[in-house]
Write the structure tokens for this entry.
Amino acid sequence: MRLSLDSLDDDTLLGVFSALTVPDVLNLRQTCRRLLALSRQQIVWQNIGSSQILQRGIPFSKKPLSSFSVRDLEDRVRRAYHLGNAWKAPSIMFHSSGFAASRGGPVQGIHFIPGYDRRWFITVSQGIWSMITLWDRRTLARVTSWSPRKAVFSALAVNTFEDSEAALAVSLHQFDSVVVEILAITSTAPDSSPHFECIARVNTSRQPITMRGSLLALADEEAETVIWNWKTQECAVMQSPVDAGLWRNQCTQVVFAYKTILVVRARSVHAFAEPKLAPHPNTYVHHPYAKSTFGWVDSIFVSVPPSSSEDPAGMEGQPLSILVRTKNDDPWSSTFKIQLWTLSPMIASNDTTIHKPHYNFPPSMTTEIVTPRRGALRCTDIVLGPHGTAVWVQPGDYSIAGLISSNVHLQHMPVPQSHEILVAAAFPGLLNVQGEPQVKSSWKNYGENWTCLDYDEERGCVALGSTVGAVTILNI
């Protein structure tokens, strides 16, 4: 007796859907109304999201699958499936779009906003005074701007928690004072345009480095880092040792890892046991249990493994990844290296000490990419996602022009042009099972030099700002 799909009960068909790939589900749903209705069940996309997205290490939201509506979950799973296939292919094709974010001046910073359903990103620019502009990611239209009178911004940190009411923290110099303001993106009515609203303020000259929910990491230019809870007004002070041999070792990143806080400076990483916050003023000073230096480098970026927002302990026992762009001591060398280091967790023991170390120092180098170009860069940012994908800017190959300057207007010979390149790479992991890092895309910049970048691994999107105020958006 031949069975047809019509003869199967709904539970069996739901099981069939869960075993299919995303393209197969989309094809099968077109055969009849019953299968179309079944394919729109929440359980179908939860099962596919779990088996074909999360278990295969494809970038996805940290929120539980059950927290999304059926339509939203289907859209996210389909987008993630496309993204995973793109990263596993031999090469990636970016789809570019762009617009002018400021009038002539450079874009000083560009950041995706993780919260608010990832609808927006911001640019930082400066005319007479500094300005933050909010943009719609889908339409690239301006949403709103924030520019306090006679204020100049010195630093900015975007909140990494999607559900936090605070969107970012900004350090601004205004009227002979320095303050850090916590900003939310709010609307006065459901149909009104969003705007920035200050919801907290602290008088400090320390600069915001990292924001994680209600916790804000602030740092000075030398050695001190403060973890401040802007809701409870509790804080903890962490002091890194000053190394006279490390010139301009300013703080660039603060990472909240498993029971550990890593303070990333321009040429070193310091590990602190997770401190207990106390009401301000808190005079107790915490010191690092370990330190590692990387010599003469351009950039350091530390990435934590993917974990659920409901289970931060999911990072326990998992290594941290450190991406380093090195400099070369040889002035005649035409290369630089992108190195991936691994900071391994300590072996579990019965030790119940609260402030015990949780990571083995020093980190070990896992792999590296030698790039054939070396030159000056306005944008030295590198970003490594939790799933092992990374982006950085590679300088133009100035050697092709030799000693000929394109600014010499009297010459009669053509001058070869050199362009910056955005590099996208996948390091060994679930998205790259080859065992060696793979460069997936090299996108040339035919405009003015880039000044800043940000990378949203979950959406497969890169944003770059330039010296003339132009913004380029690259989508996978």
